[in-house]
């Protein structure tokens, strides 16, 4: 493993990271399939077990917690059973939940995945996208004002479930900039929020085209020769006014775009792909951790790409440990 990566990883455990965004509960129903239903052409799943994990921004926090014990989260859940279970899961992970508001009018978003023979059969979403009311927004801003100065990095995970709005986004950006805090954003294309002067914004290809208001186009064999993608990146650098942009490209890896620097392509490091759910959460967590530990953008992007490659080789919304990153980087 190159010395520069070893030095970056060694700094992870001492960093303080704040995660802000839409908190969700991931439910997995595990089972086996041996026949097709006589009622409809669908498989009959015989349930063998159930699991629950933090999802959405809560899964980002769970990924961060694997890398540093100093992890806190700001968000909102309902007072329903799912919200209580999610808070318990986060606390069991050792994540600070003092910044989580519980609201009786909010429904905790739950994504239920039915998995049989290591394949997802169906996903069922239970959610109601409810924006913060005036009191909740004021409280969220107070929490942001108090927590960001104590953090080395802030990760925003926008899943479009109502917690984030432009006033809150502007406040997060303002407080982070005032304190010189790393701000890494995983955006959602349908909220169309601006993230002025964020350190890094990490959309996937489809999200990038949508936000840039360009029609979707088939990817070129090499991202560096993909004129449409490069134009999208240039537009988003101007739109978001961020320090750099990292566009995730699935099997083609990632593309790093900075002002006044040539584009930098990072091929995927994934060998076996079992489940892509949560890989983006892993990538943004490692990206922010690396930047907080002094990594240059291309090294932070390399580490995020490596972590995502490990995550997709696991079933479910998996996390990645420092030791796994060290082992994966050992062949470089």
What does this structure look like?
- This protein is of the alpha/beta class and 332 residues long.
- It has a single domain (3-25, 53-109, 128-329), classed as Ribokinase (UDP-N-acetylmuramoyl-L-alanine:D-glutamate ligase).
- The protein has helices at 3-10, 57-65, 81-92, 134-147, 166-179, 205-211, 227-240, 279-292, 297-311, 322-329; strands at 16-21, 23-36, 43-56, 70-78, 96-103, 107-116, 119-128, 153-157, 182-186, 200-201, 244-248, 254-258, 264-266.
- A nine-stranded mixed sheet has the order 5-4-1-8-9-10-11-12-13, sandwiched between helices.
- Helix 6 (205-211) packs across helix 7 (227-240).
Could you tell me the mean pLDDT? 93
* CATH architectural grouping: 3-Layer(aba) Sandwich
Radius of gyration: 19 Å
The structure class reads: alpha/beta
CATH hierarchy class name: Alpha Beta
**Total discrete domains:** 1
Order of helices and strands: HEEEHEHEEEHEHEEHHEEEHHH
Q: Would you kindly provide a brief summary of this structure?
A:
It contains 10 helices and 13 strands. The chain has 332 residues and is of the alpha/beta class.
Short key terms for the protein model shown above:
332 residues, alpha/beta, UDP-N-acetylmuramoyl-L-alanine:D-glutamate ligase, 4-stranded mixed sheet, 10 helices, 35% helix
Secondary structure layout plus pairing:
Layout: H1 3-10, E1 16-21, E2 23-36, E3 43-56, H2 57-65, E4 70-78, H3 81-92, E5 96-103, E6 107-116, E7 119-128, H4 134-147, E8 153-157, H5 166-179, E9 182-186, E10 200-201, H6 205-211, H7 227-240, E11 244-248, E12 254-258, E13 264-266, H8 279-292, H9 297-311, H10 322-329
Parallel strand pairs: 1-4, 1-8, 2-6, 4-5, 8-9, 9-10, 10-11
Antiparallel strand pairs: 2-3, 6-7, 11-12, 12-13
Helix pairs in contact: 2-8, 4-5, 6-7, 8-9, 9-10
């Amino acid at each position: 493993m190159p010395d520069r990566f070893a030095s970056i990883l060694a700094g992870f455990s001492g960093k303080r990271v704040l995660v802000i965004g839409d908190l969700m509960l991931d439910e997995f129903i595990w089972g086996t399939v041996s026949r097709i239903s006589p009622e409809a052409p669908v498989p009959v799943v015989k349930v063998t077990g159930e699991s629950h994990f933090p999802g959405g921004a809560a899964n980002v926090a769970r990924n961060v917690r694997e890398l540093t014990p100093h992890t806190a989260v700001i968000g909102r859940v309902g007072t329903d059973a799912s919200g209580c279970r999610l808070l318990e899961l986060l606390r069991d992970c050792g994540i600070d939940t003092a910044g989580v508001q519980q609201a009786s009018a909010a429904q905790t978003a739950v994504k239920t995945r039915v998995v049989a023979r290591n394949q997802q059969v169906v996903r069922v979403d239970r959610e109601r996208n409810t924006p913060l009311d005036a009191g909740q927004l004021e409280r969220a801003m107070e929490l942001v004002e108090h927590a960001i100065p104590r953090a080395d990095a802030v990760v925003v995970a926008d899943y479009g479930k109502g917690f984030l709005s432009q006033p809150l986004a502007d406040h997060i950006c303002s407080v982070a900039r005032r304190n010189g805090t790393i701000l890494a954003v995983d955006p959602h294309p349908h909220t169309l929020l601006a993230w002025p002067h964020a350190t890094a914004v990490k959309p996937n290809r489809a999200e990038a085209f949508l936000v840039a208001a360009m029609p979707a186009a088939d990817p070129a064999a090499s991202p560096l020769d993909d004129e449409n993608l490069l134009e999208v990146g240039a537009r988003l650098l101007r739109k978001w006014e961020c320090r750099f942009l990292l566009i995730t490209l699935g099997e083609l890896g990632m593309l790093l775009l900075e002002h006044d620097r040539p584009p930098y392509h990072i091929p995927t490091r994934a060998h076996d792909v079992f489940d892509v759910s949560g890989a983006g959460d892993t990538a943004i967590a490692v990206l922010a951790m690396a930047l907080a530990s002094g990594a240059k953008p291309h090294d932070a992007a390399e580490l995020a790409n490596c972590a995502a490659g490990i995550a997709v080789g696991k079933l479910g919304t998996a996390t990645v440990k420092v030791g796994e990153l060290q082992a994966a980087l050992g062949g470089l």
